[in-house]
């Protein structure tokens, strides 16, 4: 039979009463009994009516189905019906107009039949039933609908539809689940009403907590509106069952920032009614090997997201870039994200390029309010995580201190965050955690190490394992660093620049172990620290040079590495130059054949930069 629009026959669901019956509409009924003057029928167990004998078209037996048109509903509640016999029609379920059960209260209705109104957030076809994830703003619920094993139930219901659903509340694998007996798309006014309610509930609920920061900081206060905006977007994504991908710089600061948000999100997912799988399906965290959101990263993220949309009926994700994401190096990836309308949020403390903001839904960056990189991503991430989910504060209070020592912050906030946790985590302990994170991330490579990292960061509060693991990782890391320095330090070449700065050059590939810890960036940092100690109070610039890249560190020289890189790219034809980073810590890439020219150009620029004399 073709799908012919036209006559609708309504099926009155079990919990409906007379108030859901409308004059002029056609209903499916069952014959209940006979009288001289006509036939009694039931529209459901609660609603009965009479077909006067003058309105009967065919002969019936008891329990026969019959289609009836409502002629009149009398004030005494009697219904006058007429039998009709349309040849072509389709049926719609009429559901009770009573208040729908709110999903956050679902557990109170275990074993009972409920009606739920909401928006379809995910449709997953299993080898058994079809699982619809419904969000009504107050929470999320899974509903199983079964027609035949592996066959999509209610194929007319699509992702994002407003629906009304009736079913029994059960537990399945110790999770609440509604066994669907009817599911229908709500269109017109009803659909709009549900959507408006959903919007109002979710807007109010997404509003983050208004908590004071863990420390006093003018810069953080100025960033508060932007941080609240990010917290709200993330809360909304959770309540709407939109998956979240956190991408972060693969160092201690980036890890602290990202894990803080990860813990806030997974905690809230559970509170919102998502099942245990959601920790992995709804929230992914991954380090970016490069200090920006590389094409390799977006390609991988998009590949997974598009597959998940097909396989699991998931929405496309929100992308959160942490300790990454605010410079022009991120632009190629962000243009791809924009094609698929992935919302992107950046929480970063690298010197931002303004042009990037056109790609972003929100951007927290201390440079926007006159601050600098001394406010680490870990500080920002931890404070935003508290706004998202205050309950996790105890697990993450020390993250800002770890990130501050990891990123060598010299901002006043560093010491405030360190003293906040001094009783539990000494500065030395924080440094060890930061080094252990860097070291472990090197071996984790592209993996997030979600559970291992929790031991290193002492989220698990398993003091025995935490201490032994940190001890071991720190010893190994320091051993590897010492070995690297023993090989490399004799090959450091120093000279004095016009501006009085000490310049040190060293080849991080010829005179260092490759493909092991510490990698070139970290190696250069270690050399720089040693050189600064040898020249206290004096301006020092260190350049670790590789075949087609160089890593820069400086102290006491007012450089702007991203600007120098841009200038060199314009000045040196055929240099193949790119790069960036912080103002005084960064990297530059070039083609191998132009190495000498590029390094000379770079050194000339450094020699013209102003120095801060007597800097400590
Ligand atoms: Mn950082």
Describe the structure.
- With 616 residues, the protein is of the alpha/beta class.
- It has four domains: 3-94, Beta Barrel (OB fold (Dihydrolipoamide Acetyltransferase, E2P)); 103-202, OB fold (Dihydrolipoamide Acetyltransferase, E2P); 207-294 and 306-325 and 344-459, inorganic pyrophosphatase (n-terminal core) (Alpha-Beta Complex), CATH 3.90.1640; 492-607, Diaminopimelate Epimerase, Chain A, domain 1 (Roll).
- It is 35% helix and 25% strand.
- The chain contains 16 helices and 25 strands.
- The strands form five sheets. The chain has a six-stranded mixed beta sheet with strand order 18-19-20-21-24-23, with helices on both faces. The chain has a five-stranded mixed beta barrel with strand order 2-3-4-6-5.
- A hairpin with a 4-residue loop joins strand 9 and strand 10.
- Helix 1 runs antiparallel to helix 2, helix 2 (218-239) packs across helix 7 and helix 3 (252-271) packs antiparallel against helix 9.
- The longest helix has 26 residues, at 463-488.
- The protein is elongated and about 115 Å long.
- The mean pLDDT is 92.
- The site of manganese (II) ion has 8 residues, from helix 3.
